[in-house]
Amino acid sequence: MQDAFVAVLEAEQAGANITGLIDKLNSYVDHLAQAEISFRTGDVSGAIDKVADVLKSASEVKTEAVNARSRALNSGEVAFRLSFVFSFAGAFFYVFLLYVFWKLYEAYYARRLSSSKPKVRTIEA
Fold first, then answer.
1. Whether the predicted pLDDT of 124 surpasses 80
2. Are 47 and 31 within 8 A, CB to CB?
3. Could you give the C-alpha distances from 85 to 78, 92, 95, 117, in angstroms and in order?
4. Is residue 70 part of a domain?
5. What pLDDT is attached to residue 125?
6. What are the counts of helices (DSSP H) followed by strands (DSSP E) for the chain?
7. Among 32, 38, 121, 124, whose Cα sits 20 to 30 Å from the Cα of 15?
8. What is the pLDDT of residue 67?
9. 8 Å CB contact between 65 and 10
10. Is 95 within a domain?
C-alpha cells in the first residue's frame, strides 16, 4: 500500500494528473478501516478478504501511477523539444526578415540617391 502512495507522489511530482488515483487511494483507506473494524468484531475472514482486495487494488494503482509518471515525463520532454525547435526557427525567421528588409531599404536608398540631382556650388574665398 505504501508503494502505491509513493508511486502516486512521484507521478504528481512529474506533473501527472493524479486526481483519480488519490480518490482510489482514499477509498482503499476506508476499506482498510472497515477491515480493521471487522477484525475487532471477530470477523477475521472478512477482514482478510477486504485487506487482500485492497492490496490487489493498490498494486493496480501503483501501476497506473507509474504509467502516468512516464507519460508526464515524456510529454514534458516533448514540450521542451518543441519549444526549443520553435524558438530556434523563430529566431532564424526574425533574422531572415531583418536581412530582407535591410536589402529592400538598401535598394530604395540607392535608387533615391542615384535619382537625386546634385547641385554644384562654387566656394567663394
1. no
2. no
3. 11, 11, 16, 50
4. yes
5. 65
6. 3, 0
7. 32
8. 92
9. yes
10. no
Burial call 12-49: b when 16+ CB within 10 Å, e when fewer: bebebebeebeebbeebeeebeebeebbeeeeeeebee
Span 27-86, pLDDT tens digits: 988 989 999 998 899 888 888 998 998 888 888 999 999 999 999 988 888 889 999 999
8 domain-assigned: yes
Residue 34 within any structural domain of the chain: yes
Mapped to the 3 state alphabet, what secondary structure does 39-53 carry? HHCCCHHHHHHHHHH
Residue appearing with cell numbers 478478504 = 49
Domain span including residue 63? 2-90
Cα 27 to Cα 33, 35, 42: the distances in Å are 10, 12, 23
Contact 76, 58 (CB under 8 A): no
The angle, 0 to 180 degrees and rounded to 10, between the axes of the packed helices 2-14 and 44-115 is: 10
Q: Which three cell numbers stand for residue 84?
A: 526549443
Number of structural domains, the chain?
Answer: 1
The residue written with cell numbers 529592400 in the block is 104
